[in-house]
Amino acid sequence: MQHGVYTNLPSLKTVHGHQMKVLVAVKRVVDYNVKVRVKADKTGVETANVKMSMNPFDEIGVEEAIRLKEAGKATEVVAVSLGVAQTQETIRTALAMGADRGIHVLTDVELQPLAVAKLLKAVVEKEQPKLVILGKQAIDDDCNQTGQMLAALLGWSQGTFASKIVPDGDNLTVTREVDGGLETVVLKLPAIVTTDLRLNEPRYASLPNIMKAKKKPIDQLTPDALGVDASPRLVTVKVDEPPKRKSGVKVGSVAELIEKLRTEAKVIP
Amino acid sequence: MSVLVLAEHDNASIKPATLNAVAAASKVGGPVEVLVAGQGCAAAAEAASKISGVAKVLVADAAEYAHGLPENLALLLVELARSRTHVMAAATSTGKNVMPRVAALLDVAQVSEIVEVVSADTFIRPIYAGNALATVQSKDAIKVITVRATGFDPVPATGGSAAIEAVAAKGDAGLSQFKGQELSKSERPELTSARIVISGGRGMQSGDNFKLLESVADKLGAAVGASRAAVDAGFVPNDYQVGQTGKIVAPDLYLAVGISGAIQHLAGMKDSKVIVAINKDEEAPIFQVADYGLVADLFKAVPELDAELAKGR
Ligand SMILES: Cc1cc2nc3c(=O)[nH]c(=O)nc-3n(C[C@H](O)[C@H](O)[C@H](O)COP(=O)(O)OP(=O)(O)OC[C@H]3O[C@@H](n4cnc5c(N)ncnc54)[C@H](O)[C@@H]3O)c2cc1C
Ligand SMILES: Nc1ncnc2c1ncn2[C@@H]1O[C@H](COP(=O)(O)O)[C@@H](O)[C@H]1O
Predict the structure, then answer these.
(1) pLDDT score, position A6
(2) Which residues of chain A lie closer than 8 angstroms to B133, CB-CB?
(3) Which of A2, B72, B149, B229 has a CA-to-CA distance to B247 between 20 and 30 Å?
(4) What's residue A19's pLDDT?
(5) Ligand 1 touching residue B24 (CB < 6 A)
(6) Distance in angstroms (rounded) separating the CA atoms of residues A136 and A194
(7) pLDDT < 70 regions, chain A
(8) What is the pLDDT, as a whole number, of residue A112?
(9) Which residue's CA is the closest to the ligand 2 atom numbered 8?
């Protein structure tokens, strides 16, 4: 299926008159089902022997990029991940979903959003994509920064918290999930998009595609080779466990519930 | 120390989250200034000048700030930030959109969603859906910060009399355009500042059934929220979502109806003062954080609750 799409490319280019290469950032994070534990020495959370997965928002990003390609709007999908050696697995997942090739920036240094944005900028300068898709938020650091930072460093437009994107020539129309509802903006391409939950429902990789993904190329780079200082700017002084809630009680009826809320908790009149 | 707070407003009035951000800013020390950037925003600037503890209000009134486009707003904030030690905004969809852009342009880190100011350079912020609290120290000359409203009691909206000063607009970056919006309309209080919130989950089965919750909400003066599953299923709009990646609420009373209590949902409401859970599954994890748990079919319990409240006392 992917080959079929690929061989169609030259004609697509002539039809549309331009190419859209899409870069997708994928982060390896502790799986969303894992309830993390704070380490006894308070230096961080326990990540040894914990299930790791692709950040869910990045799965949505990969899915969107692949759909753009399937719709003939994108020519190539490149998955990029930064981090330790095992990060390759996350790139393989993106390749199995349907990305064409991968780029791995290998580093053991703790990466914070500004450093990630600088590294991604260097990758963007090499690859010259028209669109870069990131997750709105990594579910480990919960920062919600990297896409906006990358847009700033590149001097590009940004469509964050996207629930719909529609490319049209030199523009991209983005529907965004905002506090009051939905907002639509038109971005000049090239642009940065960050995904929200309603953008799409990511596919599962099929077994044949997982096998095929093993043969897809992954380039390896380093922060040094990209000329980026990736050292952290924020110092983590300590990591604590949040205060635990006292366990509550079960009530037997609605009447009892109302009584407790009125006289014990005093939260309703 | 000099702190600039980006006001969240609709040109006419100041949004409540700004008051929490000013509260956080006051803890840093030094004078707190508020920036009102918008178009035709004189009334909002006037309102900002009355916020307790605000030393000065800066107003940038220009077409390019009409819709809070981050590409334009960041250019203005970066310029103002250079002569200050801290720039803060509430962690709303506007604040989250623009502040990282400002930080990157200044080549500094951004500290997201702080819940505590330890000192002028050290802050506490939740990570991993609130399952851990990180204390982080910034070594950068300018601290760019978003503030989680639930971490700080709001300062009074009145009582101040700050001077209002116009600042020059920085022009349109020419990168993006606002096209339109679809805002959910509601007579009920805003989710993030309501004193009582009643949220429904997948157990509600349909958008229509949310009327059951709305009826209770109207009797309690409550806001209505939802789990991700209820939003994904199309029962209610996206702005109802409470959780790690939705809105963070900490009302006096939170009622979770037909919600299982996934960590991503708990992340958005577990700092509520009193939590009530109504769920037919007694093993549902929501009961682990509920002060009062009612194991019941919501289609029986909620109408009963509604009827009892209608009776008054
Ligand atoms: C990246 C990511 C981000 C996420 N962010 C969020 C977020 O911000 N907010 C959020 O809420 N979730 C979020 N989630 C989703 C979260 O993991 C859960 O899937 C979701 O919260 C489940 O919603 P729910 O409790 O309504 O549904 P379910 O887990 O399906 O629970 C439904 C509950 O209703 C009960 N029920 C059913 N019928 C009745 C009845 N008649 N009477 C009484 N009880 C009944 C059932 O017993 C069950 O406990 C996120 C997930 C991911 C991966
Ligand atoms: N190490 C990384 N490798 C690849 N992408 C990343 C990395 N860190 C962050 N990102 C991207 O940036 C998004 C937002 O992350 P954050 O700003 O940390 O919440 C993620 O969803 C990813 O798309």
Answers:
(1) 38
(2) 239-242
(3) B72
(4) 74
(5) no
(6) 5
(7) 1-18
(8) 98
(9) A27
Q: Partners of B84 in the beta sheet?
A: none
CA distance A223 to A243: 38
Please, what is the Cα angle at A16 between A10 and A20, to 5 degrees?
75
Residues 6 or more apart in contact with residue B187 via CB below 8 angstroms: none
- Give this prediction's pTM: 0.96
Closest-CA residue of B relative to A268 is B220
Interface touch B181/A183, C-beta < 8 Å: yes
Helix (H) or strand (E) segment spanning residue B34? strand B32-38
Of A141, A156, A253, the CB nearest to B175: A156
Mutate to test the interface with B, among A254, A258, A263 (most CBs of B within 10 A): A254
Q: Residue B159: pLDDT above 80?
A: yes
Burial group, residue A164, by CB count within 10 angstroms (0-12, 13-18, 19+): middle
- The tokens 């859906």 sit on which residue? B129
For residue A202, how many other CB atoms are within 10 A of its CB? Answer: 19
Residue B313 pLDDT class (50, 70, 90 cuts): low
Mutate which of A197, A200, A201, A257 for ligand 1 pocket (most atoms within 8 A of beta carbon)? A197
Choose among B271, B245, B266, B255: nearest CA to B223.
B255
Strands B122-127 and B132-138: antiparallel
| Alpha carbon distances (Å) from B218 to A2, A269, B304 | 53, 14, 15
Question: Rounded to an integer, what distance in angstroms lies between the CA atom of residue B236 and that of residue A69?
Answer: 31
Number of Cβ atoms within 10 Å of the Cβ of A182: 20
| B253-271: pLDDT as tens digits | 999 999 999 999 999 999 9
- Per the CB < 8 A criterion, the answer to whether B55 and B30 are in contact is no
Closest chain B residue to the Cα of A233, Cα to Cα: B109
Q: What is the pLDDT of residue A18?
A: 57
* A91 in Cβ contact with A102 (< 8 Å): yes
Q: Tell me: pLDDT of B1 over 50.
A: yes
**Exposure pattern of A109-125 as b/e (b: 16+ CB <10 Å)?**
eebbbbbbbbbbbbbbe
So what's the pLDDT on residue B185? 87
A107, A82 in Cβ contact below 8 A?
A: yes
Residue tagged 């939170």 (tokens): B254
Residue A219 β-bridge partners? A103
What number is the average pLDDT over the span B92-118? Answer: 98
Residue B186: its pLDDT value, please? 87
Q: What ipTM describes this predicted complex?
A: 0.97
**C-beta atoms of B220 and A268 within 8 A:** yes
Strands (E), chain A: 21-25, 28-30, 52-54, 76-83, 101-106, 131-135, 157-168, 171-178, 181-188, 191-195, 218-221, 234-240, 249-251
> B258, B203 in Cβ contact below 8 A?
yes
Across-strand partners of A176?
A162, A183
Q: pLDDT value at position A31?
A: 97
**Contact map slice: A 124-153 vs B, CB within 8 A:** 136-137, 139-153
